[in-house]
Amino acid sequence: MKSILNYVGGKFVKGKREFADVNPANGSVIAEVAEADESLVDAAVSAARSALQGPWGRLSVRDRAALLHKIAAGIESRFDCFVAAEVADTGKPITLASKLDVPRAAANFRVFADLIKTAGMESFQTETPDGKTALNYAVRKPLGVVGIITPWNLPILLLTWKVAPALACGNAVVVKPSEETPASATLLAEVMQQAGIPDGVYNVVHGFGPNSAGEFLTRHPDVNAVTFTGESQTGAAIMKTVAATVKPVSFELGGKNAAIVFADCDFEEAVSGISDAAFLNTGQVCLCAERIYVERGIFERFVEALKKKAESLRMGSPLESTTNIGPLISRQHREKVLSYYRLARQEGATTVTGGGVPGFGNDLDGGFYVQPTIYTGLAETVRCVKEEIFGPVCHVAPFDTEEEAVRMANDTKYGLAASIWTSNLKRGHRVAQQMNVGITWVNCWFLRDLRTPFGGVGLSGIGREGGIHSLNFYSDLNNICLRL
Ligand code: NAD
Question: Does 215 sit in the ligand 1 pocket, CB within 6 Å?
């Protein structure tokens, strides 16, 4: 059986215990994962601290950027290994991992390598009322040791989204990938070694959250900052833990995202875009739309077209190039999603399509599949419309006026993303600007320049990452004031 090891101070290390890595497409155990105990997490943090004192801490920005490009090239040269690891761990279709996850992992390093070379600093020449003049300018310094905790839905994409800017700014990192998807973080360690990243700059500790590697990392007094992507409740628990040592945090959390479809939209484009927004990655993207509001004049036609689209999606083996929908991540997560499917019916939903578990008649029946599902008819106040389900499911509701649509879309404790579908340019801008979210798409979804801000409001997160926003989180600014 394959072993997935921790990576500490440049060495691949076993743990005292192991846990199983399961392929969600058929429920088989594909690897044993070495769990890091508290002493190993401590060793990883010490290794990171030591690396900051070594050659890594003295590298010029240009040399750091060159190393980041080498990491990107290393990912690209092992493209198939990364795709295979992501597909086996998550069950996502091979076409998706090849088009999205792995190319984005490499792109994350390239973008931040280039950005750090051109990121400017603030400077002001001041004259005080009593006639003193001074030059103020800020210099960027690494935060130190950054703890990085990531989820299972886009494992290598989200991990590198944090590792790349953290390294670009000169930090050393200890990453704790999700226990469901450990493989690609350890694979990245091999790439780091080959790229010549000094020992201790990138460390991986495997394990769970509470009373395991996740908690050991967040409460460690020698970790200078914590960046986390995952559920809002987990974010709340981590916030409590880090409060004791007053660390800066960056949180990218859950969502219950809305899409607003106006009658003047490009109908085909909207149906196709909403189908992606509801069902891509089996609905397991934080940006997925679970609440769809459609202008009444096209409501029935839209629901019918979305149903047709959902029923045309092919569920099957992630290894088949024709598969659009893979399994959910785990048996436990499928139980959660199915409990919402049951709840929706109790809450009075009409099932337009789906609502159950598919049968394959082969080993995929041991996997964690659910049908893509569309509901209508729910009240805006019920749990299925309020809570993040994180599966291939959406609720479609009609609206009569723009104001009503905006009010319903914003009536949530979350605030991550929204999409507006209209051919009226003015309305697109007007409605987008009223959305209480971190990102609003107009006539598209899941499209973004990596230099732009990304994050959420309310339960969806704290802070912004992306471009200069990431560089600002992963560095301390020292303001130098020189009397002239
Ligand atoms: P999760 O919160 O259960 O786990 C995420 C990570 O946190 C895992 O590595 C886990 O081991 C760790 N963890 C759990 N409890 C912890 C604790 N007490 N201390 C330290 N670490 C702990 O999330 P998940 O189920 O892996 O991912 C799905 C969630 O992530 C969804 O809510 C989704 O919306 C969210 N998400 C958000 C974004 C975003 O950018 N906003 C992106 C992807 C996923």
Answer: yes
- Give me ligand 1 centre to Cα 152, in Å: 8
Ligand 1 site, residue 254, Cβ cutoff 6 A: yes
Q: Is 447 among the domain residues?
A: no
Do 141 and 79 have their domain in common?
Answer: yes
Active site residue 335: no
Instruction: Work out how many domains the chain is built from and give that number.
Output: 2
Instruction: Pull the structure tokens for residue 268.
Output: 């085909």
Question: Which candidate in 169, 286, 384, 394 is catalytic?
Answer: 286
- 161 within ligand 1 shell (Cβ under 6 A): no
Alpha-carbon Rg for the chain, nearest whole angstrom, is: 23
Domain for residue 117, yes or no?
yes
Helix (H, G, I), strand (E, B) or coil at 380: coil
Ligand 1 within 6 A of CB of 19 = no
Distance set, CA 423 to CA 259, 309, 419, 444 (Å): 15, 22, 13, 12
Calpha distance 155→158 (Å, rounded): 6
Which residues are CB-neighbours of 216 under 8 A, at least 6 positions away?
Answer: 36, 37, 38, 41, 42, 205, 207
Ligand 1: centre distance to CA 449 (Å): 24
Q: Give me the tens of pLDDT residue by residue for the chain, a chain 484 residues long.
A: 899 999 999 999 999 999 999 999 999 999 999 999 999 999 999 999 999 999 999 999 999 999 999 999 999 999 999 999 999 999 999 999 999 999 999 999 999 999 999 998 889 999 999 999 999 999 999 999 999 999 999 999 999 999 999 999 999 999 999 999 999 999 999 999 999 999 999 999 999 999 999 999 999 999 999 999 999 999 999 999 999 999 999 999 999 999 999 999 999 999 999 999 999 999 999 999 999 999 999 999 999 999 999 999 999 999 999 999 999 999 999 999 999 999 999 999 999 999 999 999 999 999 999 999 999 999 999 999 999 999 999 999 999 999 999 999 999 999 999 999 999 999 999 999 999 999 999 999 999 999 999 999 999 999 999 999 999 999 999 999 999 9
Same domain, 231 and 345: no
234 CA to centre of ligand 1 in angstroms: 6
Angstrom distance (rounded) from CA 104 to CA 108:
6
Residue 408: domain span: 257-442
